[in-house]
Amino acid sequence: MDSIKTLNSITDTLLQSPSALSQSDRRQVLQACDRLRAFESPADSITRLVFSAHQLMALRLGIDSKLFDAIAAHVDSVKAAERNPEQSSESIPLNLSEIYESSRADPLLIRRIVRFLVAMNVLHEVDQDHFISTPFAATLVSSSPFSAAVIHSTHFTTVLSRLPEYFHANGWKCPDDGLNGPFQFALDTKGHYFDFLSSTPYYGQAFDTVMSMPFRRRGRDWFDFYPVANRLSVTNDSQTLLEYDFFQAQPVRGAKAYFMRTVLHDWPDKQAKVILGRVRDAMSFDSVLLISETLLPESGALLPSVISDMQMMGSFASLERTEYQWRVLLEDSGLELVHIWLPEGCDNARSLAEQPALLEAKLKSQQC
């Protein structure tokens, strides 16, 4: 078909210089690729989905075995020996025998991991037991935030894999207690997920790294579209750091504004009502509570939004909330939602997936 020839021609042209594309153009290309999945047969789709977990685990094995560290170290040593620091990593051939010595795994296991990574195009094979690295492989060294993302995600599969058992055991009811949910069921523990992270530095550090990655700071800052000057009069610009347990009484009373950013999505309504109640008790009639959180659309939610919702369910027995769910939660906590602030034009499922909303709440009228 002529259309197939045209598609292949466009693809070949784009692949000649992929780095030349702007961020906007690159995203449009990827979105076009996603649309082409309409040509997948059901068998194609199930095969892709079923085996995606294996690919992520292959990356995790490469990270934990220090394979990617060993590859990067060898590449760096070649560049240093040849006094050519600008040399492309993809031009430096690697021999498996040179990698064994620096990795913590036995040679057969390394060969099997490398074979998988070659099939994923993470590494490129040039001959038997000879390969070259790629820019992607270079991002998976131990010090990289991308390796932390893999560690965090693969550990979460422990919880995901037991969700069916959890729901069978709990009558297919949504979890509603942060201390008795899918995470506790999967790991057979009574502690909260945050307690686990505190007591397990390997996973705790990976979690902290992922939370600080640039993709987490999506969209515009709330104070760029909230009328700060009109609604909040700042009489003292000094800052005081104050340790605070939000399950206990709020120590600052009668403040003009209280602010929470991505706090409440970590807690189901049972605990979220307690947190909100502590703030409510400290608020005066002219106080406002500003909540920066994801706003899940009532319909048409995109994959990133629903993935986040499942993450919340698995880790914290909590959820990403729709406008209706936020209204009910605030109402049940003695507060009322006054306004939802979003940048101009942020009015569809895609924009909501990329831009946190700012919810403004105050005491219920009868409480003022």
UniProtKB/TrEMBL annotation:
Catalytic center residues: 265 (proton acceptor)
Keywords: Methyltransferase, S-adenosyl-L-methionine, Transferase
Protein name: O-methyltransferase C-terminal domain-containing protein
Domain O-methyltransferase C-terminal: 240-334
Pfam families: Methyltransf_2 (PF00891)
Keyword flag Zinc: no
GO biological process terms on file: methylation; secondary metabolite biosynthetic process
PROSITE patterns with a match to the protein in the record: SAM_OMT_II (PS51683)
GO molecular function, one term: O-methyltransferase activity
